[in-house]
Specification:
Elements: H1 3-30, H2 35-60, H3 67-85, H4 89-116, H5 125-151
Helix pairs in contact: 1-2, 1-3, 1-4, 2-5, 4-5
Protein name: Bacterioferritin
InterPro entries: Ferritin-like, Ferritin-like_SF
Organism: Desulfitobacterium hafniense (strain DSM 10664 / DCB-2)
């Protein structure tokens, strides 16, 4: 994979993660009276760490994070967060799991492509991408647990 393609793909993650940060921030406010609101706030902070590490990687490759990610993704995330919240907590959690699964699928594909090509600029890119993948997987599992508990009427406000 050439450097231009790698930067393009990293910029996709940069935009996706920026979107997720804003999405979860909005959801944390929309569901502030539920435990899920605290979960969304914490997940937003973890997603922000992904934004930061992907941006640093793009910069280390001599490029700048995409303006699309800087400007459009936060707006989309805020809008999507508000719209999804209107569907109720259970549906919001289901939709969040779909977003996380998309991120996992894309991280997995990039990792596989880097490994298949014997490429790992800086020596730790695959490790960083795997860490992000694990976080996305944990978010998915957590959202699923919250959704299941909600369906069983076990989650109450704190």
């Amino acid at each position: 994979m050439d450097q231009e393609d790698l930067i393009r793909r990293l910029n996709w993650f940069y935009s996706l993660e920026m979107n997720q940060v804003e999405l979860y921030k909005v959801q944390s406010k929309q569901f502030k009276d539920h435990y899920a609101g605290q979960v969304f706030e914490r997940v937003a902070a973890i997603e922000q760490s992904h934004v930061d590490n992907v941006a640093a990687r793009i910069t280390s490759l001599g490029a700048k994070p995409t303006l699309l990610g800087e400007v459009v993704s936060p707006i989309l995330g805020m809008s999507l967060g508000n719209l999804m919240s209107l569907t109720g907590l259970e549906r919001t959690l289901q939709l969040n799991m779909e977003l996380e699964r998309k991120a996992m699928s894309d991280y997995k594909k990039l990792i596989e492509d880097l490994v298949a090509g014997g490429e790992d600029p800086g020596g730790d890119l695959c490790s960083q991408l795997k860490d992000n993948f694990v976080d996305e997987h944990l978010h998915t599992a957590l959202f699923d647990t919250l959704r299941e508990n909600l369906m069983e009427d076990k989650i109450e406000t704190l």
